[in-house]
Amino acid sequence: MRPLHTFTVKPSLPPELKRLHELAHNLLWCWDHESIAFFSRLDPDLWEETNHNPVLMLGQIKQARLQELVADDSFMSQLEHAEARFDRYMSRKAWFEREHSAYCGQSAVAYFSLEFGLTESLRLYSGGLGVLAGDHLKSASDLGVPLIGVGLLYQKGYFRQYLNADGWQQESYPDNDFYNLPLELERDPKGTPLLIKLSFPGRDVYAQIWRADVGRVRLYLLDTNIAQNNRDDQDITDVLYGGDLDMRLKQELLLGVGGIRALNLLGFDPVVYHMNEGHSAFLAIERIALLMKKHNLTFEQAKELARAGMVFTTHTPVPAGIDRFPSDLIGHYWGFRYPELGLNHEQFMALGQQNPNDPFEPFCMTILALRMASYSNGVSELHGHVSRRMFQGVWPGLPVEEVPIGYVTNGIHHQSWISGDMVDLFERYLGPRWRQMPADQEVWDRVERIPGAELWNTHQRRRERMVAFVRRHLREQLEQRGASKAELLAAEEALNPEALTIGFARRFATYKRATLLFRDPDRLIKILTDPQRPVQIIFAGKAHPHDNPGKELIRQIVHIARRPELRSRIVFLENYDMNIARYLVQGVDVWLNTPTRPHEASGTSGMKAAANGVLNMSILDGWWAEAFTPEIGWAIGSGEEYTDYNLQDHIESNAIYNLLEKEVVPLFYDRGADGLPRRWIEMMKASMRAICPKFNTHRMLQQYTEKYYIPSCMRFKSLSEGNMERLRNLVEWKARVREQWPKIRIEAVESDIANETGVNVPTSVWAEIYLGELTPEDVKVELYLGAVDSNGEIVEPRIVEMAGKQQGKEGVYSFVGSVTFTASGLHGFTVRVIPNHPDLVSPFEMGLVLWGTPK
User: Fold this and answer.
1) Is the pTM of this model over 0.85?
2) Which CATH number is 819's domain given?
3) Is residue 107's pLDDT more than 80?
4) Are strands 794-806 and 812-819 parallel, antiparallel or unpaired?
5) Exposed / middle / buried, residue 469 (Cβ in 10 Å: 0-12, 13-18, 19+)
6) Contact at 8 Å (CB) between 844 and 395?
7) What H or E segment, with its residue span, contains residue 406?
């Protein structure tokens, strides 16, 4: 039965506790250990029952308990301290204001993401992408970066995982209760919810706007589950990554187009838009439409201006993970807006196609984002290379190494992932700067000050707590499955709190190879069941609901774990979330990662483990390819890539067994007279010193700010100054260059090199170029030279700009460059022509390059 009237019931807090509402509704508490301890003190059992949600807890706590707290001098003193800490944090001058005050402006950067992982009680994430986005916002708050987040508010979010009796993954979708979460509904002065509107074919779709306060950063979330929409449209924000292509397109329209409209409705006009993955790339089209209308610009002019303030981060290293939509679906949802943009269907499709001349090529959101962004990046050094290789076709004729996709390696937000016990150690021996300046190497060098016994005892406590948590969690799993009393008793004896413990927890995609460890079961059993040096493994992770091969990996692990000799040594934890992740990265001894290289874009779970003193053992993929040295952990293989995957699994599983048998297990159990594994502790310290200052989101966000946000902001403002003459000139210049480019010819290339030359002997090269109606100022002519490999290709090229002057023949210019070769061997050179203009971010952004070819 539907109600006649709805209203919100809020907790009745005594006046003395009124600020608890404010403290609970700002997610600052989720990364501040003192705040977590403070809320837990209200009612420890209720804190756990509400899944660490202080808003829900305040709504359920008994009134008598609140009165007890008011009368408790100790608690009231703690509350006063919490309020002062909160006020200090919210008002302090942070890094951005100190270093970049000239660029301060309200919400200068808008960060769009389809998922955000902030805390386990706010289920708006599925895995690493969302958790990274959440950590991005937290570091923006800590650093004072003027950033706002934009996403969707899912009624059910990602699924809850449980296993049936056979170990097969099942999914359930419990509702998120928005009114009992740290969220506020945005309303007008009369109290009416603010609504944005999108026009869909034959109807309008509305969304209301919720706000989550993440420290000093605001996250706005769109929700279509309202009465103004029909049932199908109410479900647009029902499930994260649910439904078919049609539903995905509607979600991405809501995020990109609706997100900009929500910001405008709220009074924000960000200068820079950061697209976290291609899901939000439609925001570029909406921004172009708004700029066309606001400034009376053509589509090309508005596109150039919009591009100036666009940043794009790709997280996907495999083509199968990228959203592509068929032509008819794009036409269905965008066709009615073509006249507004001044485009036809083919022109619109070309924005998201690698080859616009192929009418059967689908519309790719990543290509749209790449074309619309001034700056694009992968999320690790290796992933930057993989991305350049994947999307080389967007810039035809350009060598892989020059494709304009850079990289900013991911990081983690330390305070969200480091255990309270470790925090106490850091406070005593590293000082407060580990929180404020986690990218400072000097801070982490102080890890050497921590006495080995204290570090080890702290880690031992975390392992013991993790084992206790795992036993409770296993018992709950078994009870829900209707297990026998014997099985329940066995769960209480699972794992040994003193044994070497390996953790493997991540999304169960097949390329992550969760069962690689089981390729030789007998050898593994021998390692795990050694009575003198026991080893145990904890698995956790979800497979996508439609990924049956991933579900099969989970089923295999569950069946192996049921073998009598392994029953207490291998466990699988259901419903992996941020809470389980914290227990594991804080409590295991070794973090195992076995992706098929180069399919791991970055990965961040190993960084979280390392910050807690856990050692990594991983394939050299993603971030570990940058971080690894033998002093801080173990590499599985040497970075090889295979075409025979069966051979690869055989070689790399053997490498894991060899590492465990010969290095990892002996090192862990090599104890001195005092019972301490001294060499293991040395590796823990070396790992923290090397990994913590580099692989954190403070460093990451500072890089984004200085490499991308500030330059984008400056470029957007520069192009939009005055009557936008600079913008109009750039667009006219690009049109003229594109028109003339097919006419350009490299007519002759000569050099003073015969068949041989000497090392360090000056050499000159001349080229005659026909430029048509262009001038030497419109182009760069470059020598592209280097050693030649066995395939006849120039490798590790050196690029030298050639100087030009006009010759007698009309339109033909002579260019000359001088070089010397510093090493012997077979070398070669060619000549190329590329566009040149002071307002280009990259000379390759137009996708134009003319190469000299052998005659």
Assistant:
1) yes
2) 2.60.40.10
3) no
4) antiparallel
5) middle
6) yes
7) strand 406-407
